[in-house]
């Protein structure tokens, strides 16, 4: 790979950008991290807003193109580094299910979880991007229970997206870690890429804690 293949990742370890970093590790893609201190509102400063006016991460830059939105970033990177085999190619029968589950995470699952957590009244079915929270959650849990991965025997970038999302959501108590869900998360989050990013996160936290004591 050449320098032009390097990905710039705007990142914070307490954000959805963790999933993007795990994916980059899984892909073996060359990348540089630009850390944004969310507590200092780095994401709202002019330099970053010039890249992503939404002031959100993950945001990547690759070959001069800015890509935002977690679902788009997942699809883009897995296709850009196709050699890693984490994205079924166009024409592969698994391509449709792969895109379905990636889109489902952002367009249905996250809004449903937040509606349930905030105890918001669901929108009328005809206006909602998902059926209702319970149906949405049951849909993904039923698929996961079939295992071992979202595409059956094939691990893909969709599992990276869902693995990080569900790991966080269960840690915060927004979803019960059932035996089937726990087994899925164990399979995904014990992969070397996840463990490397978890180690990096622990190192960042330790460094920040040490800096605080020194001050």
Automatic annotation (TrEMBL):
Keywords: Transferase
InterPro entries xrefs: Glutathione-S-Trfase_C_sf, Glutathione_S-Trfase, Glutathione_S-Trfase_N, Thioredoxin-like_sf
UniProt key word Transferase: yes
Record-annotated GST N-terminal domain positions: 4-85
UniProt key word Repressor: no
Domain of life: Bacteria
GO MF term list: transferase activity
Record protein name field: Glutathione S-transferase
Species assigned in the record: Oharaeibacter diazotrophicus
């Amino acid at each position: 790979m050449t320098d032009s293949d390097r990905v710039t990742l705007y990142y914070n370890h307490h954000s959805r950008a963790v999933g993007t970093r795990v994916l980059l590790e899984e892909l073996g893609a060359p990348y540089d991290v630009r850390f944004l201190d969310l507590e200092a509102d780095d994401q709202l400063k002019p330099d970053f807003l010039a890249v992503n006016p939404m002031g959100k991460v993950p945001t990547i830059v690759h070959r001069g193109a800015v890509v935002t939105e977690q679902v788009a970033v997942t699809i883009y990177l897995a296709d850009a580094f196709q050699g890693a085999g984490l994205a079924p190619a166009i024409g592969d029968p698994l391509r449709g299910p792969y895109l379905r589950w990636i889109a489902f995470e952002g367009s249905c699952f996250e809004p449903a979880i937040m509606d349930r957590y905030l105890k918001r009244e669901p929108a009328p079915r005809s206006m909602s991007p998902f059926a209702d929270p319970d149906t949405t959650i049951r849909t993904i849990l039923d698929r996961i229970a079939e295992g071992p991965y979202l595409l059956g025997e094939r691990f893909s970038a969709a599992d990276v997206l869902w693995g990080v999302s569900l790991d966080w959501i269960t840690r915060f108590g927004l979803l019960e870690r059932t035996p089937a869900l726990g087994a899925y998360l164990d399979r995904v989050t014990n992969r070397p890429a996840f463990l490397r990013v978890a180690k990096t996160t622990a190192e960042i936290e330790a460094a920040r804690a040490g800096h605080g004591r020194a001050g």
